[in-house]
Amino acid sequence: MSKILKSFVFLLTVSGLLSCATTQKNESVAFFDRKVDLTPYFTGFPFSGFLVSLDADKVFYFHDDGKKILKVLDLEKAKQGLFESGTALSNLDFDKRTYWKPSFNKSDNSLYWIGDEDNTEVTNIYRMNLATKKIEVITKVSYIYGYQYNKDKTKIAYIARVSDGVNAKSEIQIVDLKTLKVKTIAKDGGKLRYYWGDPTWSEDER
Predict the structure, then answer these.
(1) Which three-class secondary structure state does DSSP give residue 166?
(2) Model confidence over 129-166: pLDDT tens digits?
(3) Strand ranges (DSSP E) for the chain?
(4) Fewest Cβ atoms closer than 10 Å to its Cβ: which of 76, 89, 155, 167?
(5) What digits encode the pLDDT tens for the residues 79-137?
(6) Nearest of 54, 50, 52 to residue 2 by alpha carbon
């Protein structure tokens, strides 16, 4: 098992144990030749929503300290459990927003996710550049069911609900991440309906 993979498994193991913890005391976990004391974390562990990105060599997560703050931490520090030392990416309270399916895009140094700004679940694709910390919404639809990057991560294909109600319609659209121009490539029709799932790109991107 590679060193990176060992670290990844260790982080997920510790995170899983902590998320299940309640009132136990004097607990520790051993991983190969390392021993981590989990006792301080069993009462009110304030961290959640971990995204480990080997491309960024970082961990993205939430720190709930009165507000649910999105933070980032170098992977090496995360392996030591130093989540308190993470850097806040925004002062927004993500308890008041929808946030799911996050991913890091190395091509533009940005964190992407499906979300909204007021928990109304009118969801779109958002991104935050890690250098500028600027958040922008890159789609304008009623709901996003799923998304997928192309091979070089310069475009995103996504399944979008474009109308609501009993006869709600969906489309597969593509957004260029540099120009933000959107192209519709398929629409609901006949018995064919697009719902939950992530589009799959062909090699020639057609």
Answers:
(1) coil
(2) 999 999 999 999 988 999 999 999 999 998 888 877 66
(3) 28-31, 34-37, 47-53, 58-64, 68-74, 87-88, 99-105, 110-115, 124-129, 135-137, 143-149, 155-161, 170-176, 182-187
(4) 167
(5) 888 999 999 999 999 999 999 999 999 999 999 999 998 888 889 999 999 999 999 99
(6) 54
What's the CA gap between 140 and 147, in Å, rounded? 14
Return all residues near 76 (Cβ < 8 A) that are at least 6 apart: none
What is the C-alpha to C-alpha distance for residues 174 and 192, in angstroms, rounded to an integer? 19
Distance CA 62, CA 77 (A): 16
Q: How far apart are CA 81 and CA 46, in angstroms?
A: 12
Q: Which amino acid is at 53?
A: S
Q: Whats the size of the chain, residue-wise?
A: 206
